[in-house]
């Protein structure tokens, strides 16, 4: 599960978050507002008695500060990607403003990457001449599965990023965009921060379970899942029966393998209703972590259906907020 997974939905928050449409006194719109005029968020904060770790996450802060090109290398002004998964690396390098087009279907850009990348034109997998001319790509970043799309951008340099794990892919994007030094520095900083977080929070003493709910199934995420990898970098332990790389389908015989000191649950696309039914079931509530109210909800798109340094930072932020202080969320 360590490969980048393509995105088809906006994740947990998009599935369960909504804004009230009540009219505020003296306001010309239909948004509920505070006395000073600021809008009041009415985000869902709990699902089936399980609190969400970060329901009001500010996606405008996902991307980094801009990085500079390597010494002696020219900068790249205009970037096109043919696979939205590559945008995580561009975002983490802080140069999302240079992306002029995404050669993918509308809605394919993950929500967590923020509004600027959400607003980049999605020109389809077979862009027409007008869209190509408007994009004016200096470089086209592609993957083996989408390399054929790069042919439409004749004259632009094209670099294929091979599947090799999220850190290797980030380095490859950094090199392609003349930022190999910045990419190495950012990865070192992330690993140092993750290790310091693990030490500060005594992560090695926590056995954390990762459970994903599908439309009619539940799965324990393996150590090779994106979230599993980040927990490993932090130093968080997994329950003994979850220490394998592949996902573990949950059934009647191994149901209690989902238990742990703390359980992070998430909902795959279409999995919300089934997940709620399991979370409210007697069998689930009889396990240790649910009994002690140590079950928390996280965004499936960020924790599993994405991968990259920008997403890794968000997972780390969720762990900082909840690993030891989860009782404060109740």
From TrEMBL:
Keyword terms of this UniProt record: Signal, Transport
InterPro entries: ABC_transptr_periplasmic_BD (IPR002491), Bact_iron-sidero_bind (IPR051313)
Principal location: other
Compartments, as annotated in UniProt: Cell envelope
Keyword Transport: yes
Residue ranges of domain Fe/B12 periplasmic-binding in the record: 78-327
Domain of life (superkingdom): Bacteria
Family the entry assigns: Belongs to the bacterial solute-binding protein 8 family.
PANTHER family to which the protein is assigned, alphabetical: IRON III DICITRATE-BINDING PERIPLASMIC PROTEIN, IRON(III) DICITRATE-BINDING PERIPLASMIC PROTEIN
Name of the molecule in the record: ABC transporter substrate-binding protein
Species of origin: Gordonia defluvii
């Amino acid at each position: 599960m360590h490969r980048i997974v393509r995105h088809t939905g906006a994740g947990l928050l998009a599935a369960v978050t909504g804004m009230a449409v009540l009219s505020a006194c003296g306001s010309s719109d239909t948004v509920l507002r505070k006395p000073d005029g600021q809008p009041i968020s009415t985000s869902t904060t709990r699902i089936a008695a399980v609190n969400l770790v970060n329901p009001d996450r500010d996606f405008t802060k996902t991307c980094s500060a801009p990085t500079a090109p390597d010494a002696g290398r020219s900068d790249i002004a205009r970037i096109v990607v043919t696979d939205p998964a590559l945008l995580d690396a561009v975002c983490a390098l802080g140069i999302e403003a240079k992306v002029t087009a995404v050669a993918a279907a509308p809605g394919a850009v993950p929500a967590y990457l923020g509004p600027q990348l959400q607003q980049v034109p999605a020109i389809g997998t077979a862009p027409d001449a007008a869209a190509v001319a408007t994009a004016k790509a200096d470089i086209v970043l592609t993957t083996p599965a989408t390399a054929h799309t790069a042919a439409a951008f004749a004259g632009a340099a094209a670099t294929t990023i091979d599947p090799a794990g999220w850190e290797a892919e980030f380095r490859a994007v950094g090199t392609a965009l003349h930022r190999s030094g910045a990419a190495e520095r950012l990865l070192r900083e992330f690993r140092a921060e993750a290790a310091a977080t693990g030490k500060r929070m005594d992560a090695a003493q926590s056995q954390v379970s990762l459970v994903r709910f599908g439309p009619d199934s539940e799965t324990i995420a393996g150590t090779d899942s994106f979230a599993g990898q980040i927990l490993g970098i932090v130093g968080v332990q997994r329950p003994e029966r979850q220490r394998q790389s592949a996902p573990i389908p949950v059934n009647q015989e191994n149901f209690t393998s989902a238990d742990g000191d703390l359980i992070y649950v998430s909902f795959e696309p279409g999995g919300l209703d089934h997940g709620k039914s399991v979370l409210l079931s007697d069998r689930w509530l009889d396990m240790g972590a649910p009994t002690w109210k140590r079950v928390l909800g996280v965004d499936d798109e960020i924790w599993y259906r994405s991968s990259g340094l920008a997403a890794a930072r968000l997972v780390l932020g969720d762990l900082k907020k909840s690993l030891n202080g989860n009782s404060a969320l109740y």
